[in-house]
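Request: When convenient, would you put together a sequence paired with its structure tokens?
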Amino acid sequence: MNVWKYGNNINTDMLFPGKYTYTCSTAEEIKPHLLEDLDPTFAKKVQPGDIILAGKNFGCGSSREQPVVGLKAAGIAAVLAESFARIFYRSAINQGLLLIECPQAVRAYTDEDSITLDIDGGTIVVGNKTFTFPKLPPEILAIRDAGGLLPYTRAKLKKKT
């Protein structure tokens, strides 16, 4: 697992350049352009299970879904940040991408540290330090486990019929 650490105010254009908005519509078309202007190595080296750490206001900018779709398709296990832009946070829930706000854990991380997440227990271990975060609501975890809001809703509707 790789840990990718970035700073504050990482906006949606940094995550997925706006110039591709109308030419890339599928996850496979989006993935090669993830973070290309911020970190040209990211799209080539990202692996399923990797984690992104970031500062404040991660995902600010436009309401485009491509950044979240691409990160989810790349297999990002979670994004840990000091804070998230509200519209990005909602888009991540819709796509089933796990976001965790834990400023202390982000600030404590150094390149030598490993990270272990316990989503159900609400803890993050960074190196040898343990940090807690508010447990995620069961509905958000169910949406993530279903692969996003649409699969979650379809499964619920199927159960009713």
About this structure: Strands lie at 3-5, 51-54, 78-81, 99-101, 115-118, 123-126, 129-132. Residues 149-160 form the longest helix (12 residues). The mean pLDDT is 94.
